[in-house]
Amino acid sequence: MHPSRAGLTDLAARAAAGRFEPLGGAHAYSREAAKGFRRSGVLLLFTPTASPGSGADSNSGQGLDLFLVQRSPLLRHHPGQIALPGGRLEPGEDAVAAAVREAHEETGISPDQVEVLGPIPPVLVPLSEFVVTPVLAWSETAHAGDEVEPGEVLHTLRVPVAELLDPAARATVRMGGFDSHGFRRPTGWVWGFTGNLLDHVFDQLGWALPWDRGTVYRMGWDEARGAGLLPDAGEA
């Protein structure tokens, strides 16, 4: 067994037993605040790294990749952002089923490649009025497909967890009056809800490395909306 898989399995078990520390701040779950919000699920799908030379000798996240997507700049909600695959529940679905289905649609990863480890407590995204249930999952063989949801996803990103945890790639992303945890990637920042969630999950797993939270990246509105990701992103 991959050494970091045990940590993921344990985290899912802690969540099932009610021993997972909830995410606080702007995304803290409240039954009252969630009234009228739509329900959705996102998939945290981990797989052994595709990067040569990445060791996996301890439960530290080393030797693992995580699947993310870069959303189209043409979308109404969170355009251009790097996010976890996922989306709203369809009739008759629970959050786990929705997360796996949406991940298939957005990344091309077949559900039969995904082993669900379990959900963690729900969180809120007040800006778009969603209650989001993150779902931990594992795959030994996951690979992104060639066909993804048209008009929603620009790229499927398979990201080494070690690169996300690198303190040199971390900063507090400031957008207007909102601060969030940030992870720098070649095509932009993982920030906002996804940045805060990943920061919290990595901390709960014991994988997080110290980084300078006083380092601030000031993000402008155009960058936040993914301007420049498509040649004609501003012409629609």
Automatic annotation (TrEMBL):
Q: SUPFAM superfamilies from the entry? A: Nudix
Asked whether the keyword Nucleotidyltransferase is assigned, the reply is no
**Keyword Ribonucleoprotein listed:** no
- Which residues belong to any copy of the Nudix hydrolase domain? 36-185
Q: Which UniProt keywords apply?
A: Hydrolase, Magnesium, Manganese, Metal-binding
Q: Which Gene3D superfamilies match?
A: Nucleoside Triphosphate Pyrophosphohydrolase (3.90.79.10)
Q: Which cofactor does it need?
A: Mg(2+); Mn(2+)
Source domain of life is Bacteria
Q: Supply the PROSITE patterns for this chain.
A: NUDIX (PS51462), NUDIX_BOX (PS00893)
Output this protein's name: CoA pyrophosphatase
Q: Which organism is it from?
A: Occultella glacieicola
